[in-house]
Amino acid sequence: MRDREVLVRFRPSGAETYVLPGTRLVEAAAEAGVLIDVPCGGEGICGNCRVIVVAGAGEPTAAEREWLSEEELQRGWRLACQTAITEPTEVEIPHAGRAEPQILVHSNAPARASDDPPVWKRYVELPPPTRGDDAPDAIRLERALGVGPLEVPLAVLRGLSGRLREDGFRGTAVVAGTADQATRGTRPITARLVDFEAGNTETDAFAVAFDIGTTTLVGELLDLGTGTQWAVQSRVNPQTRFGDDVLSRILHARQVGTGLTELQEAIRSALDEMIGQLCLQAGTARERIYEVSIAGNTTMQQLLCGVDPSPLGEVPFVPAGGRSLTCRVTDLGLHIHPEAGAYVMPVIGGFVGGDTVAGLLATELAESDGPALFVDIGTNGEIALLTDGQLTAASTAAGPAFEGARISCGMRGSTGAIEKVVVDGRVRINVIGDVPPAGICGSGLIDVAAELLRHGVLTPEGRLHTPDQVAGDAPADLAQRIVMHEGQVSLLLATEDEGRDGRPVVLTQRDLRELQLATGAVRAGIAILLKRGGLKPTDIRHVLIGGGFGNFIRRSNAQRIGLLPTEIEHRRIRFMGNTSLAGARLAALSQTARRMAEQLARRTEHVDLSADPDFARMFAESMIFPEA
Amino acid sequence: MRDREVLVRFRPSGAETYVLPGTRLVEAAAEAGVLIDVPCGGEGICGNCRVIVVAGAGEPTAAEREWLSEEELQRGWRLACQTAITEPTEVEIPHAGRAEPQILVHSNAPARASDDPPVWKRYVELPPPTRGDDAPDAIRLERALGVGPLEVPLAVLRGLSGRLREDGFRGTAVVAGTADQATRGTRPITARLVDFEAGNTETDAFAVAFDIGTTTLVGELLDLGTGTQWAVQSRVNPQTRFGDDVLSRILHARQVGTGLTELQEAIRSALDEMIGQLCLQAGTARERIYEVSIAGNTTMQQLLCGVDPSPLGEVPFVPAGGRSLTCRVTDLGLHIHPEAGAYVMPVIGGFVGGDTVAGLLATELAESDGPALFVDIGTNGEIALLTDGQLTAASTAAGPAFEGARISCGMRGSTGAIEKVVVDGRVRINVIGDVPPAGICGSGLIDVAAELLRHGVLTPEGRLHTPDQVAGDAPADLAQRIVMHEGQVSLLLATEDEGRDGRPVVLTQRDLRELQLATGAVRAGIAILLKRGGLKPTDIRHVLIGGGFGNFIRRSNAQRIGLLPTEIEHRRIRFMGNTSLAGARLAALSQTARRMAEQLARRTEHVDLSADPDFARMFAESMIFPEA
Asked: Does ipTM exceed 0.95?
């Protein structure tokens, strides 16, 4: 039943993925976590998504012939939105030819150094002190670095004189703060000495960016000098053992004496282990990581920080802090360089957290030309709207269905997950990692619901036809998969023989109700924000979709089930992948990004959807899947 | 032999001292640690040192009648430089009538709030959150305080939401950073939340300022709101058990494996105990102290910070850091409020440290109208010269004689110390605290040498006449005190019957040689700085003397022994008391003072006296006491 997948490898990041033949390159890239900017929405009409297919390039399409010269085509240049994968492929994502305004979103592909990293390194050789030149060691270093006042923390000061004298007044300064005067102009700048290392270690400077989702944790190791992604790690948030949504964890923290400590320790140790794995993967040491940046929803961030989330569990759901938190990384119990700093994203409200701010930062929603919508589909759905320069944001109660939770065979978008389902003549599925399927993830779920609606097997009200009802109408392969499973009408996606460990993968009527609820919540949220902004769906010029699926949702299917308004043209919808991680990455690499995040968080109006008089009606309406 | 002393009490500080009848009020104030500005040098010709003698006012002098109206005189107004103490006296130091440029020096008398304290408090009542007003707690607080971005450290954030909800969204914010917008104008300001306390604790906000001398530690508890000094503590630096000068301690740190740790722990625990005593004395808690400010010489500061001082023990004597150090107070192992900050003064060079910078700050030397000299007489003598807007500074190898060390019966200026000696018909001594004498301190030493020179008992070369030689010439009371003591010609200041615990107080020939060396070192240093500045002693408009004696040196005696150039007019010499402590106090109370300290440290040129080609000759010449 599973089609043979082929390997696609991306340079310079080295990211890999397996996809079905026929998959478009832009989609394969998204699966590999490599984001390619597709300004025109993948219609082949802007020519911006140029890449070099080093191995495995197929025949150029008409659109590619239009945008690329014959010489370029021969050298392997293609448009990522046009080229389909047919065989094992190797792709180079070039530095040049990208639209600058979108560069922030795609800072891992191509890798891009920031102008003002929070930490930078400089190898220096100082003139040794003499009787005629007896300035203090830290002042000598400050002069050599050409920075303004250099703050030397106590722990670093304790080792500085010894290190300088052991190594002949040579070594590499690790500096936190604004970059050197040459690039910064004449205004006075301050800097903090993180360390002074023996020898020239300029090229060994790393940061870690984390997206801490309710369900999934993702971390990546970044090169502070070049912006290159050196390693990626993800895992299930171990806090899920205390409940799969934020409220159950808030309750645990509130009702159990040691609850907060347990939750904090669970995520702290997970992140610390992930850092260890990132170091192994990239072959570097924890001490070479000088900065960690963290984005998550308000509850996740408070739990990591050991801040009691109780007020987030009761009306009016008030966060403890609003601004970004900067502290020593040791205050969070993470083990990287002991003088490293930690940065935790600012939040907008109780359920519109640092992940949304990171998404606003990464998508550059606020810079859009005209009304624009950002929908972040994680454990809850957060929505932000830009209109007339005003940003509003709200959270929906979508629940964790899109991350595979509360779905009987649900799982996150990792190896073994059915992440794509197509019903043409037969039911075709794609499993991440090309292994026997173990469950279904969010994007697969959306595909299934759309296909079932399309083939009339699911009613707009969300009722799955019984095996008897579908017998004649639906394609035979689909019809025979509609079965009774534990008393419920269900779709059999994989039999016991096909599934991993001899277990079938089944989608039940109740699962579809969960999806219906989740979709309805997002749809109602969008409707209310549009209403408040005095907008119709057709007024929206850009819809930017974020989500940690690890997969592309297909636009047509997202619209078919009503997750996105059907009136919006395809080309206006862009999938941005894990925007929370992308925002954390920007904050890990750039101080300007941090300032922007702070501004975004404070200028965004927080809207309480349920306080809207139309909320109940709109939510009820949105529960009905759109008619074909 | 001891004359009956009388008590003088000062308001508002409550400081007290016992002085001999006939002592001028300005001198009594200095003994009590209360500094009164005497711009004219105490000649009664400027009328600036006006005080109110509440009880014990004597007849006004002619100068007082000239400067004060009959009504003022009747209300007790007197000139501090004119009025002599004749009976127990109570003195009010008024707020008004002071020369503004000198206000910094005398910030403890009168107490004076700073415009920009490093920490301030504000009682606030916040509107409790509602569904329509669900901003994060920290943002609500920020708005109520009217500050710019309010940084909330992790430890404070952890308790904030709970504290707000327990106390009905009321309480007192403790804020580090610039003061409120009302006084600061419109520029964006940042602030850090140190704590949020239950109830209104606005009036309970303290800082501690420390002068950490090689020999003596002095600490004072200051009211951050009003600048009032609430308590003072002093003690011998317990590091003296590792050697009485800085070099022996540097050697100990260098040669003994645990040396640095021992030295650091010795001073840390002493300061921490002093904080406890300050709290007891003032009836407050350690948690109400939000800031500590420290001034000391470069070695003392490095030892307190746990920074290896080895490079300070060898040519070219390079300090580890130059700029001020700000850190968490917990990093120094001191126990006040756990989120409090510590500030350690910037330094100029290896032997021109934070105490000198503090002195420059407190004396406002750099603001002087014309060439000015600052001489800080502590364990070493540091000298700074202002000429043509240029500051230069140097340290001399005066040694600890002025602090009573290396003197057989030497002691610091505390209870039991002979701090003044006058030889008229007989030898009159004054003992601090009106108790049997236990030893002699720096000012007493200078008095003795001057009187011995004056009566021809000590030769300009520093040789003490033998009992036989003095028999006929000197006053009988003096002559009979010249004795042989343990094989040396000596001056018997107190017999076994008179001294504390039945021990005599004796000054030996060797002691006088120590003083001669110390005096010569300072004198040579002054001569070299003047030479480099192209100045003669008569060009100097102001000589500002600092020192932690706890006593006044009498100008005539300081000049008689050549500690200060004899050519300088009396009225140009001003004694400023413990300028290191005064500077630490300013830094504890004012951020502007900290910025000024930073600038002073960096703009002052460090001069290595011994590198001057004339050094050896000038030092040798300075060893000879001036002829009468």
From this structure: no
